[in-house]
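Reply to dn_fold:

You asked what the input looked like. This is it:
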Amino acid sequence: MRLGEDIRTLEGTLMLDARTGAPAGADSSRRGGESTRLVRGAVMLERGRIARVEVDERTPIDPRRIICPGFIDAHLHIPQFDAIGHDGLTLLDWLNDVIFPAERRWEDAAFARAMAARVAKRLLSHGTTGICAYGTVHHEGTRAAMESLAAAGLRGSVGQVLMDQSAPDYLLRPAAQLIDEAARMERVGRIEPIVSPRFAVSCSMALMRGAAKLAREKDWPIQTHLAEMLPECELVERLHGMPYVDVYKQAGLLGRRTVLAHGIWLSEVDRRELEGWRCVIAHCPTANRFLSSGDFAGQKFRPLALGSDVAGGPDVSMVRVARAAREVWLASLQSQAAPMFGPDYWWWQITAGNADALGWSDAGRIAVGAAADLVVVEPDVELRSAGSDAAALGQLMYGWDERWIAATVCEGRVAWTRGG
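and this is what came back:
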């Protein structure tokens, strides 16, 4: 396959979600659909969509070529990719000493544009075709980045960061200015705006209420951070005079289109309240480990998504993020029996599961009508199914090597190819 080539047919072993055969818009977020399977078949593409899926249940899978849905990353920071791996700091020190200086570079919109193009290529090389991501406080820099991401073929929700307190002066803006700038964001290709108050530490109540009002008026989604570390939670309560979840509730930020990153230090009462609002929690296991934030104990929370949280998370690969999430889940069990959270579930989570959480019912799956965002994987190891997909899917996840990816396809066109 050549870069830019329009693909009509892909044949091999297909990674299908459990509800394949239903229309692309069908809800697969219930427990019965939270799994994947491998089956021989072919996918026919027309005008950037999947036109037909042919399945051969009788022929054994061919591990030499696996066609996966594009992976979806529900939480990451585009300007932080050059800061991956800065170790040994707590969250708040890491932000002040490493991340905020890195984000300052987006004052230069040309730099932001070039960096986003580079990041897009890296994401595609890891099979990521959809993102929910942060820019910076810089309006022109974030707009330029959105244009680069769209040009690369990615789908996503990307937002200008909103923060008006408790950060270096060079990143602070008046609340009214931030809301005005955010309101002027526009969709570029498949990249839509998302209202992005950073977190309750760096946002006044006036800014958060303005952000919530903007999201309602524009019918845009919202993303922010929640309860990543205990000192952060304590600081939020000192700043706002109420617990973290109550701050967002008072601001009007909670709702079914709100993505809350981390959510580690929440009580069961908090989780039940957030489920009642239908908020999404974006679980970021590799970041939680890297920053020693704590272990997320809400894998049964719905709706749940997974995110790399680059640069808090050191792994760009969503397959490695999924593997880390499974390991966190297993470590939390007194008994190791958790069939609903086997590898088949975690493959589903980084594809159709994340898509459903973000409201993208036509993404993350190989199904008629879905966007033709696909990853062609050519493993160099033999997958032995041992009579079940679970074994082969486990081998694929735990043996995963990004060099297996031969090509990444966005809307039916080769957006990245190995060696090219």
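Residues 21-31, 335-339 have pLDDT under 50 and may be disordered.
Hope that clears it up.
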